[in-house]
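#structure-requests
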Amino acid sequence: MARIGRLFLPPLLLMTLGAADSPRLVPDVSQRQIDIQYSFKGAELLLFGAIAYPDGRIPKKPADIVIVLKGPEKRVLIREKQKIAGIWVNADSMRFQSVPSFYAIASSRPIRQITDDRTAAIYELSIDNIQLSPTSFTDAAEIARFEKGLIDLQQRTGLFVQRADTVEISDGLLYRVRLPLSSRVVVGDYTAETFLIQDGRVVAAAVRDIQIRKSGFERFVANAAEHWSLLYGLTATLVAVAMGMVAGWIGRRI
């Protein structure tokens, strides 16, 4: 599928949202900050809000809501395994430059019933429309194969989630949905993007930020590794040596 670069998104949003008679979204999320400890087993976020129409007039034809929860982007190297002489070995590989560490999308109806493929591609509305930015452009079939493998892996680990018909809209004004947050999520800044779609067009959009961070001893270790890397490395080495000496001492006494 042809994809449109993300540099086109801000101008389109400005053109879409600039009209004074356009509706507005007032979104919110149940937790703006999530602390992760060693016992973190995932979470469930409630995303909700209201649609503010000009003069309070609700259109006769109901609008649709699409919500995208997205984590920090990262580089990912995907390797393909092949069985040679009865042994599984790494074969071809491909690197992707901008893979969301987490991506969950919910909509009031299936995306194909809400808007066309072009609009869905521009706003990355569905897992298949995520712009993964592969580093190789030589073989479209090979790129598609690796993209499929990457998406399948992310879905199986709960890091890519797509749920249609899950956004509830009450009286054409209030909406809400619950999205799962995998226990495998990484720390960083997340965004919850809400899109109001009418007659196939995005007529309003809004973003809420969510911060996921480590807490307790895990946060201390992460900060030490990031800000005092040399001291952290020396301490980790000394602790490992000390534990080895203690283990050896115990082994000689048994």
